[in-house]
Amino acid sequence: MKRRKPADTLPLPQRRSPQExxxxxxxxxxxxxxxxxxxxPGAWMGTLAAAGIxxxxxxxxxxQQTQQFADDAVRDEPVSAALRMEDALAPPELxxxxxxxxxxxxxxxxxxAARAQEQHLHDASNSSxxxxxxxxxxxxxxxxxxxxxxxxxxxxxxxxxxxxxEVPAGSPLGTQAQPSPSAAAPxxxxxxxxxxxxxxxxxxxxxxxxxAHASLAAPGDAESSDPAPAAKKSAPSSGARHSxxxxxxxxxxxxLQACRPFLPARPAAPGEAAQQCxxxxxxxxxxxxxxxxxxxxxxxxxxxxxxxxxxx
Amino acid sequence: xxxxxxxxVSAFECLYARHKDELFSFIYRSGGHGAAIEEVAQEAWEAVxxxxxxxxxxxxFRTWLYQIARQRLAxxxxxxxxxxxxxxxxxxxxxxxxxxxxxxxxxxxxxxxARVMRAIGTLPLEQRxxxxxxxxxxSLAEIADITGDxxxxxxxxxxxARAQLREQLxxxx
Lengths: 312, 173
Fold this sequence. Notes:
The complex is a heterodimer of chains A (312) and B (173).
Chain A: H1 19-31, H2 41-76, H3 78-89, H4 98-106, H5 109-125, H6 131-138, H7 143-149, H8 153-166, H9 185-198, H10 219-222, H11 227-233, H12 245-259, H13 270-284, H14 292-303
Chain B: H1 2-5, H2 9-29, H3 35-50, H4 61-80, H5 91-97, H6 103-121, H7 125-135, H8 140-147, H9 151-169
């Protein structure tokens, strides 16, 4: 027992807690100690509540944003609206399928242009449709009038010229709905190949894959399921030069004919036509195999312009 | 106590070592004797452990501890119906026997303590609590917090309690 007696306090007994009592109390305290929590329940509930609110907000905002994009696409693209109106007014054989029409209404200009090129490829390879109809399908607002009237070659050229004059100057691909050449490069390359095949141009050797441009063979060969024979028919090998001036001229002639539908306007000079055609090929084949012989022929023509006919 | 609320048992051990003897003495002076002191002390500390998760540091831990101890004492007196029990004459020698101090001094302090405890036992409960808490070193404000009374009330009770003890003990104080 510990005793002390300060002057200002009463002489009261002091008692020490027994050791047995200390052990009991400490054992009880250890047994009933609050558990260590690295993450409190309040924090869990707060996190879950925040995640739930964020999820609900996302679900609410997402459809509205999609609708906004659709409205913007319809508002900013009169071409899309015109195409949809034409689809509604066109005869069944010329009308595009419903899903495509819906997709065009909400897609970007690049996708719209790619769709048009794809449609052109389809029409060009389809022998049941006349060439005028296939051409009109590619050229948008003038396609129906030309197709319905069974327009002549001169009429088709007039429509083509009208479309070309509407295209802003400086556009390498010659279409307002084609914002980026690299975005539509593969599609443009395929379109060129199909158009060249429809014109009966012989296949041109690719500098990357000999079989990749087997579709440039004659129309009969283009539909062949085996690309090997067509590849064998490919004229010059990769990196080959023209043996005679006549061959080079023929290649340039073919190239200009093939790329003429993709040029922005009728070139004023032979050299300018080759320059524009070369730009078309470079932009179209930036990410794909480029017909090397054709490229060489165009480079030669740009360096040394010759009076080559650019008639279509 | 906040550390123990987060699961730190060593914090409670430190807290217990700091307050255990003081609280045990308070319970002893409040009229408990024998095993009743240990029973009340254990109940008080167990109540502290159970209330740890609800502990809010609005006042000092010591004040909170003595509030709990007073409640346990009140419960004990109600249960045993010995609210006005005083230390018996047998308790004083028993307490003296456990002392390790010299016999002369031990006897001297035991006699004084016995008389003081008897005098305290005659005080009303409110005055006795106020006097014992004051002897524990609490201020008037802290005593008012523990007992739930006003400071002036506590001050008045202390004055009456000291006057009565002075009357009973005379020159021994």
